[in-house]
Amino acid sequence: MRSNLATASLQSKVLPTLSVIVAGTGNVGAEFLRLFQRQQQRLANQLHLDLAGVFNSRQALLAPALDCNDWQGALASGENYQQAELLAYLASLPSPKVLVDITPSQTFARQYPAFIAAGCHLISANKQGVTLPGEEYQAILAALKPQQLNWLSNTTVGAGIPVQRVLQELLQSGDQIRRISGVFSGTLSWLLCSYDGSKPFSEFVLEAQALGYTEPDPRDDLSGKDVQRKLLVLARELKLPLELTDIELMPLLPAGAERGSWQDFWAKRADLDAWLLAKYQQAVAEGKVLRYAACLSLQPECVKASVQLVAVASHDPLAALAPCDNMFVIESDWYQQNPLVLKGPGAGRAVTAGGLHADLAVLAQNVILSSQR
Ligand SMILES: NC(=O)c1ccc[n+]([C@@H]2O[C@H](COP(=O)([O-])OP(=O)(O)OC[C@H]3O[C@@H](n4cnc5c(N)ncnc54)[C@H](OP(=O)(O)O)[C@@H]3O)[C@@H](O)[C@H]2O)c1
């Protein structure tokens, strides 16, 4: 009798709905959608999670109550769309609603102000929005505030590793961050953990390319620019008014090697091999190992940020890194002599899609709580 009453009261309860619109159906986007039903079921007693849009750069499915197990076929036969249609559709959806950006596009990220004007919360795996020039980035934050909308971007650095969330918790509990250092690129981590001087470094680069660890032109990884962007994301998490150009960058390439075609570069790969062998031999002679590290140091009145090849001693946390892993070493008032270390896979479709669902779960909890007020 009692349980019948409980069931009846649950059925009569009107659950809040959160509409989810997914931009990007590639590697990570497809996995995010594969996991969507599990999230729907997990929240079923508290919230109706409605898949209300799926689109990529070509086609769009813009309708509520989409079937998350059957979006591929429907999208493939879907219509081409115009940006104006997308914006009108987003504006027409009832709040709360969230746009999940799983594209790599800066052009797309530059439209965040329009998505916010349409009433959308934002979840980004795409780093481009959080690393826009300071003025544009601040304009996005300013647009979110009056509408009380959230922007979650935990997967932009370290994929599923909750580094931004940990930084926020430390700050909210009164700690002061002094230094963040680490290895933020799984590709460069693999290359430098694997390189042992037994064969030319360029052969390790070829192997990483064959394993699918690198960008199509591996110099995009070796340039260090992606790591520079990730360090900017963390600096902004700490509310530091930094720009990309404020972060000193030393590529994992000899001077000038980033210019010209891949073929030109490959013809001169002996320069890269000799350059890195010399660095490696010097490190070994000092009992150290090579790592491609990012470092943000917050001293009173002075912030220093750099991304570079470093040689670290065996007791340094960065020395104990597994190939492909990322590591974040956080030093603060409470973690001084013994820093807080987060490590694990910093890329991959499963962990990144999982991290996006973690961001979605945070937003869903906010919606549930505000519906109970
Ligand atoms: N892969 C990882 O391990 C990882 C880890 C952390 C973060 N991320 C980030 O997650 C994002 C997605 O990565 P991914 O590996 O899934 O990339 P991907 O496989 O290349 O997929 C990208 C998707 O974005 C769509 N797209 C591109 N430009 C668009 C636009 N202007 N409007 C709408 N859709 C657009 C593409 O559309 P088409 O299908 O039409 O080309 C494609 O569906 C990137 O920002 C990446 O940096 C990835």
Tell me about this structure.
- The protein is α/β, with parallel strands linked by helices.
- The chain has two domains: 2-160 and 351-372, NAD(P)-binding Rossmann-like Domain (Rossmann fold), CATH 3.40.50; 163-345, Dihydrodipicolinate Reductase, domain 2 (2-Layer Sandwich), CATH 3.30.360.
- Helices cover 43% and strands 21% of the residues.
- Strand 12 and strand 13 (340-345) form a beta hairpin.
- Helix 2 (27-34) packs across helix 17 and helix 11 crosses helix 12 (201-210).
- The longest helix is centred in the last third of the chain and has 24 residues, at 349-372.
- The structure holds NADP nicotinamide-adenine-dinucleotide phosphate.
- NADP nicotinamide-adenine-dinucleotide phosphate is lined by residues 23-29, 55-58, 102-105, 107-108, 125-127, 155, 159, 347-349, 352.
- Residues 23-29, 55-58, 102-105, 107-108, 125-127, 155, 159, 347-349, 352 line the site of NADP nicotinamide-adenine-dinucleotide phosphate.
- Keywords: Amino-acid biosynthesis, Methionine biosynthesis, NADP, Oxidoreductase, Threonine biosynthesis.
- This is homoserine dehydrogenase.
- InterPro entries: Asp/hSer_DH_NAD-bd, Bifunc_Aspkin/hSer_DH, HDH_cat, HDH_CS, NAD(P)-bd_dom_sf.
- Its cofactor is a metal cation.
